[in-house]
């Protein structure tokens, strides 16, 4: 089934710097395969005609034809007479012997359930659940008890909240998608950080957004001058930001930058979608920074806060939420008719019981993340000395590592063949950038981190070879 097409120029941008040591057709087909595996292009998309792609990439048509043939042979594309070549994912992914017998996934930055979860699964919870059986069970904004617990949780974080302002969602991913649908119309400009959480980019694009981005880096945080200029120039309809332990850089916005950000948004009439899903993942920042929700009124900005039980309590509950003005909350909730209608009752009752204990849970998470951070830092220093682990990483769920060479996609492909699933750096950007970066989840189990990084270290010399074509050393001398 064809679900759309990708043009030759769009594919060229996604491909980035795709050439390697192998013959051009093979490197090209490898890169398209990676784009598919990590979701940068979808399955069911029609690829550009051979001639068009050949022209866009400065290749012969025979080379592109050979690349498409190789994709078909590997099960990553199919073609029907007269309808071009369409991407697909093979039914069983080929050639992935697992690391020590199991697949290791570095693609998700998330922790297993808190120890406290099993303590609330008691008779009292079941009685409460049974008490809901004489209702229809659908509640488009969430269970009253959980909305109150979330409002109280905001209150403790310095953001006084009425339960009317809360909409409970199916994970915060659903909250981002609903907010995007309510706020963004097709063709609207929406600002986001680069790099950022890729599923948010996707949700914004699905709502019709044209993304404009400005940088955030491990070293310097947000480029506020570029951000202010972009807001002034483009007056984006909405802005998606992760102010604390930003995914993937781990950076937190200073108080002054938060104020400048809100001033820029207010000045441009931009509604801020502030993703606070990682905001409690503090290892040793030792500073309580105000939520954008606490500062919004003073700066005349409208802010939708996004939150989740996934990182604190457990992702398997699929409970998230958003906080907005009562009016906007109702408007956003009205969007869910075409998606999920409501959220399961049982999981809401679980979260209602655990949110009041979030301080205890945060302590547990702090120690897990500290252990992951130190395991990753030590393994990289020992096994991958070419890489730069962030000098400052005070929290969050991942480390945005600099590989020192533009080979992230190449490395992801090689790792995949060994049963280690990693998301290549460009997955976190909008235009094929970040080939020099890899996101390592410090939320992973320390032993898995070590084993995964050992696999990468074995692959590294061969992968890194691709990075040493002479153009890199000449790059500085080209006028
Ligand atoms: C920054 C950020 N926002 C949102 C989410 C979505 O999480 P969930 O839908 O489980 O709440 C994630 C998950 O990794 C995330 O890292």
TrEMBL record:
SMART domains: HTH_GNTR. It holds the Pfam family Aminotran_1_2. Transmembrane segments: none annotated. InterPro entries: Aminotransferase_I/II_large (IPR004839), HTH_trans_reg/aminotransferase (IPR051446), PyrdxlP-dep_Trfase (IPR015424), PyrdxlP-dep_Trfase_major (IPR015421), Tscrpt_reg_HTH_GntR (IPR000524), WH-like_DNA-bd_sf (IPR036388), WH_DNA-bd_sf (IPR036390). Residues 22-90 form the HTH gntR-type domain. GO terms for molecular function: transaminase activity. Keywords: Aminotransferase, DNA-binding, Pyridoxal phosphate, Transcription, Transcription regulation, Transferase. The keyword Transcription regulation applies. The keyword Transcription applies. In the C-terminal section; belongs to the class-I pyridoxal-phosphate-dependent aminotransferase family. PANTHER family: HTH-TYPE TRANSCRIPTIONAL REGULATORY PROTEIN GABR. This is PLP-dependent aminotransferase family protein. It comes from Gryllotalpicola koreensis. The lineage of its organism: Bacteria, Bacillati, Actinomycetota, Actinomycetes, Micrococcales.
């Amino acid at each position: 089934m064809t679900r759309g097409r990708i043009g030759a120029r769009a594919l060229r941008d996604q491909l980035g710097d795709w050439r390697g040591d192998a013959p051009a057709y093979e490197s090209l087909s490898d890169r398209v395969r990676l784009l598919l595996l990590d979701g940068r292009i979808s399955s069911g998309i029609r690829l550009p005609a051979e001639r068009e792609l050949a022209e866009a990439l400065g290749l012969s048509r025979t080379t592109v034809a050979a690349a498409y043939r190789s994709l078909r042979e590997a099960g990553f594309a199919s073609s029907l007479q007269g309808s071009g070549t369409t991407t697909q994912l093979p039914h069983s992914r080929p050639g992935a012997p697992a690391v020590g017998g199991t697949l290791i996934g570095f693609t998700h930055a998330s922790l297993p359930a808190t120890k406290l979860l099993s303590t609330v699964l008691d008779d009292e919870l079941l009685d409460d659940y049974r008490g809901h059986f004489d209702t229809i069970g659908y509640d488009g904004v969430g269970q009253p008890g959980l909305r109150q617990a979330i409002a109280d949780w905001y209150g403790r974080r310095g953001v006084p909240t009425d339960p009317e302002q809360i909409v409970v969602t199916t994970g915060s991913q659903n909250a981002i998608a609903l907010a995007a649908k309510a706020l963004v119309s097709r063709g609207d400009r929406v600002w986001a950080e680069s790099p950022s959480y890729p599923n948010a980019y996707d949700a914004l694009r699905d709502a019709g957004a044209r993304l404009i981005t400005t940088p955030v880096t491990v070293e310097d945080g947000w480029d506020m001058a570029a951000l202010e200029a972009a807001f002034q120039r483009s007056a984006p309809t909405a802005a998606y930001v992760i102010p604390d332990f930003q995914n993937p850089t781990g950076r937190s916005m200073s108080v002054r930058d938060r104020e400048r950000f809100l001033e820029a948004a207010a000045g441009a009439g931009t509604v801020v979608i502030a993703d606070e899903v990682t905001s409690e993942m503090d290892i040793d920042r030792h500073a309580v920074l105000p939520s954008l929700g606490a500062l919004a009124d003073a700066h005349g900005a409208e802010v939708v806060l996004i939150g989740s039980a996934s990182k604190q309590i457990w992702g398997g509950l699929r409970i998230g939420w958003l906080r907005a003005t009562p009016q906007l909350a109702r408007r956003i909730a009205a969007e869910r008719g075409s998606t999920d209608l409501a959220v399961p009752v049982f999981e809401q009752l679980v979260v209602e019981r655990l949110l009041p204990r979030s301080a205890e849970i945060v302590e547990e998470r702090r120690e897990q993340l500290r252990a992951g951070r130190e395991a990753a830092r030590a393994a990289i220093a020992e096994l991958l000395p070419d890489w730069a682990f962030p000098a400052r990483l005070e929290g969050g769920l991942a480390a945005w590592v600099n590989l020192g060479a533009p080979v992230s996609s190449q490395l992801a492909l090689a790792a995949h063949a060994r049963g280690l699933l990693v998301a290549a750096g460009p997955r976190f950007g909008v235009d094929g950038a970040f080939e020099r970066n890899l996101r390592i989840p410090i939320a992973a189990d320390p032993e898995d981190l070590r084993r995964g990084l050992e696999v990468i270290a074995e692959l590294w010399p061969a992968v890194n070879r691709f990075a040493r074509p002479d153009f890199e050393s000449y790059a500085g001398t080209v006028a």
